[in-house]
Write a structure and sequence with these properties.
- With 368 residues, the protein is α+β, with helices and mostly antiparallel strands.
- The protein contains 11 helices and 12 strands.
- The chain has an 8-stranded antiparallel beta barrel, surrounded by 4 helices.
- Helix 4 packs antiparallel against helix 7, helix 7 runs antiparallel to helix 8 and helix 9 crosses helix 11.
- It starts with a strand and ends with a helix.
Length: 368
């Protein structure tokens, strides 16, 4: 998976500007074919010039987590923990975008020693910068659980020393359930073709066309998370691929900017402080206009804290100015992080989230 820059992250929507530098998963989902598809692929050695290698089967157990009010899902993020034959992985995944039958999603995966007890009262440190501002101290509870029996194949161009990995081809038998709900699990099968890092996109698309023609496969819509949400949580409000673009209204835009800046600051990007200050100022004015007194007081407190965390002047001395500036910027980020990790700040984030969501709901009712 290739890392995304700021421009491409903007195109992925759903607040993913803060995910610049995170690898992007590029894959195509397919369905259909015969019941013996795995056996047919196992017998296959070549697919019109592409070598197909059977890598065997594995079982993956995955739990998707969110707050009770789906704060991550509403922001276009998916948090999951997966146990497989090679250990435990925690992932933060963006909803991304769909381009034709191809999905592009930012995805950060980090290993864990074990699965922390559920529900999670805190986020694992490896993914905390991307999740903390959305969870805002709320417990993360199991939302969906999947068991996937995955048969893995590798698709390569050429052979020997000249081989070039093109794609990972997997045949999944999926079982999706909703923890705590007495309903039958959803079972289905799907095929995923994921681009290897550096492989030409046109070759991925060619492999997909060859598979569709040879095995009567058709394009499939939606990730496992989306499929499970539509089946078990039909009335829930969360952001799908199709609805991944943030709104253009001032409050909504400022709130999206605030959370993106929070993520960037937790990753050590001091330049995001200016964007956070601007977003807080915009929401403070909105609170003053709407006479939301508690929010007005708390937003004014945060504005003061952020102003106090400004970069101090570079003291004269023997160090070069760039070195002194770097030290000052690191001190600025540390001061801001003390504020962002405070219980008062997290209470404010939860309140602003409810306030902005309530304003959006009222706006939609008025439009109808």
């Amino acid at each position: 998976m290739a890392a995304i820059g700021p421009e491409r992250a903007r195109g992925l929507g759903g607040g993913h500007r803060a995910m610049a530098g995170v690898p992007v998963e590029v894959e195509v989902k397919l369905a259909g074919g015969s019941k013996d598809l795995v056996a047919e692929l196992s017998r296959l050695r070549w697919l019109d010039g592409y070598r197909v290698r059977d890598r065997g089967e594995r079982v993956l157990e995955t739990t998707y987590l969110d707050t009770a009010d789906l704060a991550l899902g509403r922001a276009g993020l998916v948090l999951r923990v997966r146990r497989g034959p090679h250990g435990v992985l925690v992932s933060v995944k963006g909803m991304g975008v769909r381009r034709g039958n191809r999905y592009e999603r930012p995805e950060l995966e980090c290993p864990l020693r074990r699965v922390p007890p559920l529900p999670w009262k805190s986020v694992p440190a490896a993914v905390a910068p991307y999740v903390t501002v959305y969870a805002a101290g709320r417990p993360l509870k199991p939302l969906l659980r999947t068991i996937v029996r995955r048969h893995l194949f590798e698709v390569e161009r050429g052979g020997g020393a000249e081989k070039v990995p093109i794609a990972e081809l997997v045949c999944d038998r999926v079982e999706v359930g909703a923890p705590g709900r007495k309903v039958a699990p959803l079972r289905y099968a799907e095929v995923e073709v994921e681009q290897y890092p550096g492989a030409p996109l046109e070759e991925l698309e060619r492999v997909v066309r060859l598979l569709q023609q040879r095995f009567a496969l058709r394009a499939s819509a939606g990730s496992k998370f989306e499929t499970g949400m539509k089946h078990f949580h039909r009335g829930a409000r969360w952001r799908s691929v199709a609805g991944s673009k943030p709104g253009g209204r001032k409050m909504r835009s400022a709130w999206a900017t605030w959370r993106e800046a929070d993520v960037a600051l937790r990753l050590g990007r001091s330049a995001a402080l200016a964007a956070l200050r601007c977003a807080v100022r915009t929401l403070l004015r909105a609170a003053q206009r709407s006479r939301a007194r508690w929010l007005e007081r708390e937003l004014a407190w945060l504005e003061g804290e952020l102003a106090a965390a400004g970069t101090p002047p570079v003291p004269p001395g023997t160090r070069s100015r760039p070195t002194a500036t770097n030290h000052a910027e690191r001190g600025e980020v540390r001061a801001v992080l003390r504020c962002l990790n405070a219980a008062r700040y997290l209470r404010l984030v939860r309140a602003v989230d409810r306030w902005v969501e309530g304003s959006n709901a009222a706006e939609q009712r008025g439009a109808r």
